[in-house]
Structure formats: structure tokens, C-alpha cells
Amino acid sequence: MNGTSTLLIFVGLFLAGGALSFWKQRMPKGVVALLGIGAVMSLTAGLLRLGA
User: Fold this and answer.
1) 25 DSSP 8-state letter
2) Exposed, middle or buried: residue 45 (CB in 10 Å: 0-12, 13-18, 19+)?
3) What is the Cα Rg of the chain in Å?
4) Which DSSP letter does residue 28 get?
5) What's the number of CA atoms in the CB half-sphere (13 Å) around residue 49?
6) Is 22 in contact with 31 (CB distance < 8 Å)?
7) Is 35 in contact with 8 (CB distance < 8 Å)?
8) Which of 2, 4, 9, 7 shows the shortest CA–CA distance to 47?
9) Which end of the chain is more exposed for a tag (fewer CB within 10 A), N or C?
10) Cα distance between residue 18 and residue 37, in whole Å
11) Can you tell me whether residue 49 is helix, strand or coil?
């Protein structure tokens, strides 16, 4: 596990937590969707870098 994959996974989890928090606060759905998409992309990139 290198530093880049660790950082991407950490950022993805951070964004996922933010999306969950914003959803509970009834924030606009566009903001929640943007955070969710960013979280999924970051987590995917981090996990794919683990395999490479």
C-alpha cells in the first residue's frame, strides 16, 4: 500500500462522510450527489492503485 492509494482512499471516505452528513441535514441533492460521485471515484481510484 503506497501513499497515493492511501490518500485516495482517505479522501474517498472523507467525501462519503460529508455526503452522508449533508444528506442528513437535508442539503440540496445536487451537492450530495456531487460529493457522492467524488467519493466513489476517489475510492475506486485508490482501490485500483492497490492492485497495480
Assistant:
1) T
2) middle
3) 12
4) -
5) 15
6) yes
7) no
8) 9
9) C
10) 12
11) helix
